[in-house]
Amino acid sequence: MFLLEEEKKPAANHKFTSIDYYNSGLLKSEFNKLDRRANYNFDVVFSADQKKIYVKENIVWINKTKNSTKEIQLNLYSNAYGSNKTLFAKAFPLKPQNQTRLDISKCEVESNEKSLEIFQPEIPNSNDSTVAKISLDKWINPGDSVNLYFEYS
């Protein structure tokens, strides 16, 4: 025989909100288990007339590996559906009005302008721009961090 704990009911005047359960978009019970490799901060403006969003993004990337690096790789998932010729879109083609693409107008590392290099690390496809890398001026050692800044639409 099992004894059930008496059902707990909230006070009549208590209104449940997401803050009761979530911290920074994560369940409170899972928040301290997260191994953060980056912290993101977005400033987003939506233009209904142009059907675009304009984003200013700050990232603090933390080297959680055991190796030093002079390169950071980024996944640009929105570009997976920039046309129906990408690897992803070949499997799930979209109508032109539903295709997505990031147009990156600014890339900075520690306030110094840098360029993003699009490349295909696994499967060559000149139409695919879902992975990019930034070459760094100095080595980022394990535990060190670097500040990245992007503007895109």
What are the key terms here?
153 residues; mainly beta
Strand and helix layout:
Blueprint: E1 22-23, E2 26-27, H1 28-31, E3 38-47, E4 52-62, E5 69-75, H2 87-91, E6 104-109, E7 112-113, E8 117-118, E9 131-140, E10 145-152
Instruction: Give the strand tally.
Output: 10
SS field, number of helical segments: 2
Give the structural class: mainly beta
User: In what range is the share of β-strand residues?
Assistant: 35-45%
Distance between the termini: 61 Å
Percent of residues in helices: under 10%
What's the arrangement of strands in the largest beta sheet?
3-4-10-6-7
Radius of gyration: 21 Å
* Uncertain regions spanning at least 5 consecutive residues: 1-7
Order of helices and strands: EEHEEEHEEEEE
Overall outline = globular
Query: Main sheet?
Result: 5 strands, antiparallel
Average of pLDDT = 83
Please provide a written account of the structure.
Strand 1 (22-23) and strand 2 (26-27) form a beta hairpin. This protein has a five-stranded antiparallel sheet with strand order 3-4-10-6-7, with no helix packed on it. Strands 5-9-8 form a three-stranded antiparallel sheet, with no helix packed on it. The chain has two helices and ten strands, in the order E-E-H-E-E-E-H-E-E-E-E-E. By secondary structure, it is mainly beta. The model is unreliable at 1-7 (pLDDT under 50).
